[in-house]
Q: What sequence folds into this?
């Protein structure tokens, strides 16, 4: 993961600015099935044959989608925020409907959130008031700001500080693990801020022994906010059901960044909060849970990500969506390994491997490379048990 961060270091409150080199490869464009009825199938280049399509399935431009008969239908939401009603009776590449002149080009507005996990066991130490929200995210200008963190046992109060570099810009003492920041308009657009919470027990979020780089917040520029409003309005014009609209809006949020090279400057918490409304409404769409898990992983809350991935996997199994099952099992294996739960990592990765061995074209060089890498990851985890 490439981070544009402020690092909080040790008891001396020394602060280092660490700005990683920008990504050299562009993010991959995002397309998903926003609606379908009847018999619709998808052919992915690395897989044998066609698989049943599901609402929410993420597609690539090279995937083929096939509406098998006039009683069936499918709509793909494209990364330019337009919808493609797939014609009946012929297997067509996604590029046919989602790319100008069917040219394979991923330029657009929506991009995949495929961020690798940061190293380390994570920050979710129950003895530390680690920040829950907002963390590693951009905010919209004048967006109401509520800070939440892990409640520490026996703590009677917390001192909360928002800093720019080593200089506090706001401080507050509170008795609960939540506080409203009174006026987010006072935060400047050209700065990255970080938040430190210190419990009355003397433990600080900045002193977590498992602490990854200090969580930051930043603000979109006014120009970016206007562009976001325009794009949100465009999504509203599409004929999307509640899940498909939430999926599109959440993808737009995590693709809207102060700097596209740095995922912690994207509207990650807006995406999380929006998806939570669908989860509380009782959705059974695995894609909603998986996307929220992706966002939790992006901001460094690995346990929350793990929980949502498990629910997504259960729903994918219920829908018999094998490609999605394997993808989520890989994600769970990655997190388990990262959390040093190596036996569980082996279990998840071997489950994914089993699906791939049955469903992928084993003669394809790309498949061979993928399976070799997966096998290496399995053995790495096994040796650490």
A:
């Amino acid at each position: 993961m490439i981070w544009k961060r402020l690092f909080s270091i040790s008891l001396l409150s020394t602060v280092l600015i660490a700005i990683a080199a920008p990504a050299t490869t562009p993010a991959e464009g995002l397309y998903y099935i926003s609606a379908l009825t009847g018999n619709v199938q998808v052919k992915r280049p690395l897989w044998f044959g066609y698989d049943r399509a599901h609402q929410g399935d993420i597609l690539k431009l090279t995937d083929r989608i096939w509406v098998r008969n006039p009683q069936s239908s499918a709509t793909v939401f494209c990364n330019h925020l337009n919808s493609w009603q797939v014609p009946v009776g012929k297997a067509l590449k996604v590029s046919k409907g989602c790319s100008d002149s069917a040219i394979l080009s991923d330029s657009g507005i929506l991009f995949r959130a495929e961020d690798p996990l940061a190293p380390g066991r994570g920050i979710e130490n129950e003895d530390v008031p680690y920040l829950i929200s907002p963390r590693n995210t951009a905010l919209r200008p004048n967006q109401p700001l509520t800070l939440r963190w892990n409640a520490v046992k026996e703590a009677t109060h917390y001192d909360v500080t928002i800093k720019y570099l080593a200089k506090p810009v706001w401080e507050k003492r509170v008795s609960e693990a939540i506080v409203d920041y009174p006026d987010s308009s006072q935060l400047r657009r050209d700065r990255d801020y970080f938040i430190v919470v210190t419990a009355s027990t003397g433990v600080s979020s900045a002193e977590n022994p498992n602490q990854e780089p200090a969580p930051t917040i930043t603000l979109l520029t006014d120009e970016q906010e206007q562009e976001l409003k325009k794009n949100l309005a465009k999504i509203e014009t599409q004929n999307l059901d509640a899940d498909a609209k939430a999926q599109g809006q959440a993808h737009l949020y995590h693709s809207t960044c102060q700097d596209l090279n740095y995922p912690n400057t994207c509207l990650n918490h807006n995406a999380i909060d929006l998806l939570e409304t669908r989860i509380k409404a009782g959705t059974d769409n695995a894609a909603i849970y998986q996307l929220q898990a992706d966002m939790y992983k992006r901001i460094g809350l690995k346990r929350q990500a793990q929980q949502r991935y498990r629910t997504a996997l259960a729903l994918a199994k219920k829908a018999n969506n094998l490609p999605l099952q394997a993808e989520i099992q890989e994600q769970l294996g990655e997190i388990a390994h990262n959390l040093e739960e190596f036996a569980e990592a082996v279990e998840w990765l071997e489950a994914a491997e089993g699906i791939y061995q049955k469903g992928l074209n084993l003669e394809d060089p790309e498949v061979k490379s993928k399976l070799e890498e997966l096998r290496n990851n399995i053995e790495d985890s096994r040796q650490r048990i």
The CA atoms of residues 188 and 219 lie 7 Å apart. The longest strand covers residues 167-174.
